[in-house]
Amino acid sequence: MNEAILGGLLAAGTDPSDVVATVRRAERADELAHRHGIMAIAGAEDPDNNKLAAKGAGVVILGVKPVGITDLAREISPVLAPSTIVVSVAAAVSIAQLEAALPPGQPVIRTMPNTPARLGRGVISVSAGSNVTPEQQQLVTELLSAAGTVVEIPEDQVDALSAISGSGPAYAFYLAEAMAAAGVELGLDPELSVRISRETVAGAGYMLAEPGADPTALRVAVTSPNGTTERAIAAFNEGGIPAIIADGARAAAARAAEITKQLG
Ligand SMILES: NC(=O)C1=CN([C@@H]2O[C@H](COP(=O)(O)OP(=O)(O)OC[C@H]3O[C@@H](n4cnc5c(N)ncnc54)[C@H](OP(=O)(O)O)[C@@H]3O)[C@@H](O)[C@H]2O)C=CC1
Ligand SMILES: O=C(O)[C@@H]1CCC=N1
């Protein structure tokens, strides 16, 4: 996820020499350094990598799996300046859990990004902890705006937002996969079916990205009265697809709450 954010920031003009990334594996560090022209330090090569990167940083973006985030916060705590803003992208890890792992008074911002950030088309929520000044929040919002649309939300809405925009790219890719499989079932060559499904979902995404785009109006424009699309949509509705999507989103939000409790 953090490489996607990094891609968005660099494409928008962040100076690569202002960025230091850390990972565990040496080959992954090499890959990031070559691909993005940044400094990347692997824990396998330098166990102090995270401290080295965090020391003197204005903003630290923590991007490990939820289960490892508070350990990482504790690890870098000794080198953080009091003004360093610690940003987390982890699902299900609360601001309180992060603050408890950091020095008292450390500014913490919890975000929920998504992978289209790589193209500058992400959705990134921002929820600030109580130690964050309006100027610090503004700085992080401006920084992340390079990777997409930033929305400021209260922390108690993060799990719901994550179930829509955090996981959402997977839902769109899942749709493309299902369409490709349906094309094969209708007799299309598998390669062709994947290609046209991918381009169709991508093309529809581009249309949705136009200013003022309305998904309902766009759908209606494709749906000729008594035509073919109308039959497809009717079958989707009869199959309960909208309710199934709501069930999926509910399950994602419930899983986030469950992880928060487990990490308690
Ligand atoms: N994937 C997504 O779409 C989204 C993910 N998130 C959140 O992003 C976070 C990361 O998820 P994701 O990107 O999918 O996970 P990945 O496993 O793809 O990436 C995690 C990265 O962290 C590195 N890493 C792990 N432990 C350490 C450590 N101790 N020190 C330094 N680097 C370390 C790994 O290095 P190495 O590669 O060497 O193992 C890896 O590059 C999670 O908390 C998730 O909830 C949030 C929104 C969307
Ligand atoms: O699946 C996950 O847990 C993460 C959070 C949102 C998207 N990916």
From TrEMBL:
Q: Which domain of life is it from?
A: Bacteria
Q: Which GO terms describe its cellular component?
A: cytoplasm
The pathway that the record names for this protein is: Amino-acid biosynthesis; L-proline biosynthesis; L-proline from L-glutamate 5-semialdehyde: step 1/1
What keyword terms does UniProt attach to this protein? Amino-acid biosynthesis, Cytoplasm, NADP, Oxidoreductase, Proline biosynthesis
GO MF annotations, alphabetized: pyrroline-5-carboxylate reductase activity
Residue span, Pyrroline-5-carboxylate reductase catalytic N-terminal domain: 1-91
Catalysed reaction equations from the record = L-proline + NADP(+) = (S)-1-pyrroline-5-carboxylate + NADPH + 2 H(+); L-proline + NAD(+) = (S)-1-pyrroline-5-carboxylate + NADH + 2 H(+)
- What EC number(s) does the entry state? 1.5.1.2
Q: Where in the cell is it found?
A: Cytoplasm
Q: What does this protein do?
A: Catalyzes the reduction of 1-pyrroline-5-carboxylate (PCA) to L-proline.
List the NCBIfam families hit by this protein, alphabetically: proC
Q: Which family does it belong to?
A: Belongs to the pyrroline-5-carboxylate reductase family.
Q: What is this protein called in UniProt?
A: Pyrroline-5-carboxylate reductase
Gene label:
proC
